[in-house]
Amino acid sequence: MVRQESGRRITIQLQGEQRERSLPGRDLTLLGHDPLGAARSVASRPWAITDTTLPAWACRRELAAAWLLLQGGEDAIQLEDLLELLLTEPDPAGAGLLWLALHGAQDFFRLGRDGRLQVRGMADIRRLRHQRRRERLSLAARQRWLDALSSRDPDRLNDALHAPEAHSGQDLRLLQSWAASAEASLAPQLPEDLSRTLLAAGITISPVAIRRLLVELGHWDRHALRCMEGSAWLDGFSETQEAEAQRLCEAAGEEQPGDRERRDLCGLRCFTLDDPGTEEIDDAVGISTTPEGEELIWVHIADPARLIEPGSPLDREARRRATSLYLASGTIPMFPMALARGPFSLRQGLRCPAFSAAIRLGPEGALQSVQLMRSWIRPTYRLSYEEGQELLELAPPGDDDLLRLERLLDRHRQHRVTRGALLMEQNEGRLRSEEGRALVEVVEPSRARSLVAEAMILMGEAAAHAAIEERLCLPFRGQVPAELPPETELLALPAGPVRHCAIRRCLSRGVMAATPQAHFSLGLPAYVQATSPIRRYTDLVCHRQLQAGLAGAAAMDEAELRALLDDLDPPLRQASQIAREDQRHWQQVWFEQHARDRWSAVFLRWLRPQDGLGLVRLEEECLEVAAGCPAACQPGERLVLTVAEADSIADRLQLTASGL
After folding, report:
1. Is the pLDDT of residue 23 over 80?
2. Both 24 and 35 in a single domain?
3. Residue 516 domain flag
4. Contact 513, 478 (CB under 8 A)
5. Same domain for 521 and 653?
6. Do the strands 116-119 and 109-111 form a parallel or antiparallel pair, or are they unpaired?
7. Which of these, 78, 180, 237, 273, has the minimum number of CB atoms within 10 Å of its CB?
8. From residue 478, how far is each of 535, 567, 633 by CA, in Å?
9. How far is the C-alpha of 623 from the C-alpha of 499, rounded, in Å?
10. Which residues contact 365 (CB under 8 A, 6 or more apart)?
11. What span, in angstroms and rounded, lies between the C-alpha atoms of 578 and 328?
12. What is the rounded distance in angstroms from the CA atom of residue 60 to the CA atom of residue 47?
């Protein structure tokens, strides 16, 4: 009942309600007047519709008949005109029922806000019916998609995904966003019908549950790293970058600027030593004797600067990545592999461009002099570490280069030890993945590995020494001095991993700066990483700076280099984080695969003693893991390790260590 009209608002009172409602006049449609309440179909005053079931006179067929009669007449009629055509005795209740019918599934009339009816044309009706048919098909397709999702049937799901009108692709992307989210608050809103379907299927609306569902349905890689999203390594190299790499591969055989000034060292024997699967061969070592009888250590490093100009497309991409990314499944390179394993690598028997150092040591093993040069070399052998070990052990007559080299490098190592260097060689377990399975590979220290490691440290010291003499800025590496436990305390610990752990916890992280600084654990007054320019952008920068100094060309000053290092810091940190997350994930997978096994372990130290969490080392696999440990465990104590929970999809691993 209309109680009051005030401006553009109307106050009404609905039957059965005590309170009045004030509504905008535009939201109300006056269907009829009944001031005396005389209409026989009205139950009470004010008139009311007690049964909204449409009568026969308001059905679709009768509306179609009325539409045929009105065709060709006026484009718009009053509601009362249509009511009189359909009903012999119109009344307000009939007007209400007709109003409901016009808002239902009929195609013939359109009710305007002014209360007038537009008589639709045939073309308009066809369009409307086509639209409604598409809506019905879309609803049916969407229901099939939701039913397929609820059934967890991959075949049904993939069939439903091919129906675009179901919006299944959009739903799948939303679910994948949930799977990639660290927590629900960071995930996007799901459509209501999708949420209902998931809950009805017993699937909690959470990132872990949705991730598990998508893995089950084949639409989520259970080994995907969330931290890889948006990183420089995710999408590989573009077609343009690959084409540029191919162009440089073809240009590698042509003369490049500075090639004529390279020193030809192809007559010197040199060797590369790497793991068997290594594709980027970026260093070689050798030894020679001067006419005066002095022995020179030769370290040759790959020279990608010959082909990669600063600011070029591949240089910008390498700078964006800052480093090759090392994962359990393999390496994602800083440069396209066509270059990295092709003209950049020091390949056996081929004439290769290199950046070489001739290093002379003093009687006690200290660095005495270094001569840097751009060179041509021809690697004599490509050796694996195992093959290098055999050469060192057998030392065949006439082929004792590695043995002589080892003796010199041992002197240098002992010199570093006298200056405080820390030697902590031990077996190390690292996780690899093959076809979705996790494998533990134990790397054992060997004479060949120690030889190469010491040669690379020596090259870093030599490059830093040369830069200081030439007053060049390099990305120097340093480490502040640490206060180690007293010697008596260290000697009381078992030698090897337990003692090394006590030392490592006292060390600070290495830092990078444009000015020289001492490196505590290496026992060097200055040091720079200069041996992997194919894999680390800072090493490439180091080469460019040193080569500019050799050529008398302009090099970056301290401010420019510091700005560059600031730019490289975020991707370097991200690469470290991704590598850690990758190892952590495959550790979870490995323990999932061996959930019923038991391992011999040794207690290293407490991580959170208040929670009973300690760091233990699996003795055979050489892995260090966090585990719940008995109270009062002491470093070196033998334990048995078991799996309490391992769920790589949920990113959970709980290990328990108990006494023997």
Report:
1. no
2. no
3. yes
4. yes
5. no
6. antiparallel
7. 78
8. 20, 19, 35
9. 16
10. 408, 410, 411, 412, 413, 414, 415, 416
11. 11
12. 26
Residue 173 vs residue 466, higher pLDDT: 466
The whole-angstrom separation of Cα 171 and Cα 46 is: 49
Q: Look at 189-193, 468-472, 564-568 and tell me which has the smallest mean pLDDT.
A: 189-193
DSSP string for residues in 262-281: SEE-TTS--EEEE-TT----
CA atoms within 13 A on the CB side of 496: 12
Q: Which residue has the tokens 């010197």?
A: 268
Range of the domain at 169: 148-220
pLDDT tens readout for residues 202-248: 889 999 999 998 898 888 999 999 889 889 999 899 999 999 999 99
Q: How far apart are the first and last CA of the chain?
A: 87
392-395, long-range: CB within 8 Å, 24+ apart, which pairs? 392/447, 392/448, 392/451, 393/447
Q: What is the CA radius of gyration of the chain?
A: 39
Q: Is 28 a residue whose pLDDT tops 70?
A: no
How many helices (H) does the chain have, and how many strands (E)?
18, 24
Does any domain span residue 332?
A: yes
DSSP H stretches of helix in 103-227 = 122-151, 154-161, 168-180, 192-200, 207-217
pLDDT of residue 435: 92
Indicate the residue among 561, 583, 605 that finishes a domain. Answer: 583
353: Cα separation from own chain's centroid: 35
Per DSSP (E only), the strands in 7-46 are 9-12, 21-24
User: Which residues partner with 325 through β-bridges?
Assistant: 332
| CATH code: domain of residue 613 | 2.40.50.140
CB 205 within 8 A of CB 195: yes
Q: Which amino acid belongs to residue 494?
A: P
- Overall domain count for the chain: 5
Matching residue, tokens 């444009």: 514
189 with 298, same domain: the answer is no
Same domain, 207 and 174: yes
Cis check: omega of the bond before 609, within 30 degrees of 0: no
Residue 163 burial by CB count (10 A; 0-12/13-18/19+): exposed, middle or buried?
middle
- Retrieve residue 654's tokens: 């709980």
pLDDT higher than 70, residue 557:
yes
Nearest Cα to 409, choosing from 468, 355, 356, 367? Answer: 367
Which of helix, strand or coil describes residue 616?
A: strand
H-helix or E-strand spanning residue 352: strand 352-361
Write out the H or E segment, with its range, that includes residue 95. helix 92-102
- 292 shares its domain with 403: yes
pLDDT score at 500? 97
Total-model pTM: 0.80
CA dist 143 → 129, 163, 407 (Å) = 21, 11, 76
- State pLDDT tens for residues 489-507: 999 999 999 999 999 999 9
Q: How far, in Å, CA of 217 to CA of 161, rounded? A: 12
Looking at the structure, do residues 274 and 379 belong to the same domain, yes or no?
yes
Q: Are residues 342 and 414 in the same domain?
A: yes
Q: How is 474-525 classified by DSSP, letter by letter?
A: --EEEB----PPPHHHHHTSPTTHHHHHHHHTTPPPPEEESS---BTTTTBS
pLDDT in tens, 176-196: 898 888 888 888 888 888 888
Report residue 148 as tokens.
């397929």
CB 263 within 8 A of CB 373: yes
